[in-house]
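During the reporting period, our protein records have gained a C-alpha cell line. A sample record is set out beneath this paragraph:
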Amino acid sequence: MNKWWLIFLLVVGLYGPATVEAATVEKQFEQQQEQTEAPKTESTTVSTIGTLIQVILSLVVVIGGFLVLMRWLSARTHGVKTAQHMKHLGGVPLGKDRSVQLVKLGDQVYVLGVGESIQLIDRVEADTLDEEVTEHLPVTGSNGSAFLDTFKQQLAQIEQARKNQ
C-alpha cells in the first residue's frame, strides 16, 4: 500500500498545478518581452535540465504503473486462461447476423443457432463424432468451405443416428 502512496505523490508532485505570476494577459506578455530581451543565464539551462528530469521521471512513473497493472491483470486472469474446457469448433454463416456454431464443452458437442438470441439446436456426445474430425476441424475464416463440408457430413450422421433410433 505504501508504494501506491509514493506513486500517487510522485504523479501529483509532477503534474500539480503551477502558479501563475502575472494576473493578466498584458502583464504576462510584458514579462515575456522582458525575459526575451534579457541575456540568457545559467538559470534557463538549469530550468531545461529540471524539465528534462521531470519528463523522464513522469515517463518512468507511467511505464512502471502500466507494467504493474499488466502484471496484476495477468495474475488475476491466469485461472481463466488455464481452464479452457470450452472449444469453438467452427461455424457456418446462414445470413445476415445468423449462423450455426459447433461448441465442444467437456465431452459434449453443442450445435447452436446464433441470431438475435442463442438457441440450442442439438447436443451430441463427442465420442459419436470422429475424433480426428473434431480435433482438426478448421475454424471458418475467409474460406469456410472445408468446415461446411465437414459440418454437412456430421449433420448427415446425426440424422442417420436419429432415424435408426
